[in-house]
Structures are given as C-alpha cells and as structure tokens.
C-alpha cells in the first residue's frame, strides 16, 4: 500500500469505475493459467506490472505502456491486488531472475521502480551531477539511494528528523530540514548554482514552485509527486537556465526488471519499505498509518 492508494481513496483518480479493489504494487505466485497462455508455469513467482496497454498503443510500441489512451491500471481501472487472487494478462507478469522474498518483490515493483524510471528514463541523470530530492517518503527515500548508485551527489530535503536520518543512512550527502529559508540553503549546498536534477516527490504546489526556482543551469525538474495544486513559474526561469520541467508517471516493466537486478546485486535495500506488514484484513488500518505519516509503506500479506 502506498500514497497512490490514499490518493485513490480521496477520489484523486477521477473517471475510474467504483467500487474498485485497490492494489497496484504486488507480487505473487501463478495459481492457474489460461488455455492459450504460454511461458508461465503454475507455482512460478512473479512480480505484477500494474499496467495493461492496448495492443495497438503507439506509446507501448515506443517502450512506454505507462501512458496513452486506453491504459488499464490494476487497482485503479480494474480490480487490483488487495486480494487473495487477482486475474492479470500474462504479458504483465514478470519472473524474477532468482527467487526474491515476496514482500520485497512487491515493493520493488513501485516504490523502487518509480524513482528508477524518473531518474534513469526521464531525468537521464549522469555521474557527478547533483540531485535534489524533495520529500523523503516511499518514493523519495529510494530516489536518494538510486541517485547515489548512479553516481550523483544527493541532497535530501524532508520535514521529519526520522526521514532525514533515513535519507542519510541511504546515502544522502547533505540532508536539509524543510524551512522558510530552504531555497538559500539548497543554493549554499550547491556552490550557488543549484542542482542539476530535482526530483519533486512531495506532491505540493508550493514545493513544485521551489523545485523550479532552485534548479540549476540545464536543470531537469522531474515531478513525481502527484499534486493537483497550481505552481508558479516565469518563462525567464526556463529560458535563461535552459531548464526543463518533466512529468514522470509510474514506471514500465523494464524498470521492474532493472530494479530486481539492483536488489539482487545489493545496490538497493528495502528494509525501510518492508518493516511494516499487516494481514490483508487490516487494509483500512494500513491506510490510516500512511495518512498519518507513521510509515512509508505497509505490505499487506494475504
Ligand atoms: Zn504505489
């Protein structure tokens, strides 16, 4: 369970069918296969890719099944994995290269794959660049460890001391507590030039504005946190700095494959994501835990 489930419950995904079984970040075991299914064996472990793109999607053909019309999202558009069983198209199931603890495999599919997609595919972050991560939640914490893995210098901004300590443990070079002077603090921490990449994970119009204001020359501001609030910017900010503002929506199946490998190589850790587990019937309590900020994730174990 992640922030998107809170967003779903609050009515953030408009136009979808209701009621719906949530659950888009999941792993499991193949229980049964359809008569024309090939390449999957009963009993096999799989990660679930939550998106099923239309067969004729021109975006899927370009390797981006996560966007475009007719995209069906498990747990948003079709019933999801807060369940003992879920029916999925075989093409959306991914077999890990080695058996992975199912609780770990579940969180790799989104909590790690989302910042991976944002940093690798959208920002195209390079070794030696400076990465600013705004918001140290389920996505931001992993952006910190992936940024470090990609050879960036990482500055993490968060509110709670616990989350800043987590960012430090996951490899942030600088941690800054969010405060009214945060823009100046980030500038000081980057020798006055601003970060090369800003990953905005906090889902707030005010922090979107900050992200754009503080980014450096040739900067890429990647919006990952889903906010419906407006933000402020001037054309001059973009022109003078050749700044780009980019959206990053979820991830693609190859991102899951790549983060599974990173986990098996011990390049990323997930203890902070798997520490809270509850039985499926405590899904409502898990939602409350997330809303209160007490946890980054809860893994529901049917
Ligand atoms: Zn999620």
Please give a structural write-up:
The protein is α/β, with parallel strands linked by helices. Helices cover 34% and strands 16% of the residues. It has helices at residues 3-9, 58-61, 102-122, 140-149, 161-169, 182-189, 205-214, 235-241, 253-264, 271-274, 283-292; strands spanning 26-29, 45-48, 51-52, 72-73, 93-94, 130-134, 153-158, 174-177, 197-200, 220-223, 244-247, 277-279, 299-301. Helix 3 (102-122) packs across helix 4 (140-149). The protein is globular. Zinc ion binds next to loops. Zinc ion binds at residues 2, 4, 24-25, 110.
Q: What order do the strands of the largest sheet run in, or round the barrel if closed? A: 8-7-6-9-10-11
Secondary-structure-derived class: alpha/beta
From the alpha carbons, calculate the radius of gyration and give it in angstroms. Answer: 19 Å
Beta content comes to: 15-25%
User: Helical region count?
Assistant: 11
The beta-strand count equals: 13
Order of helices and strands: HEEEHEEHEHEHEHEHEHEHHEHE
Q: Which oligomeric state applies?
A: single chain
Estimate percent helicity: 25-40%
Bound molecules: zinc ion
List low-pLDDT spans.
none
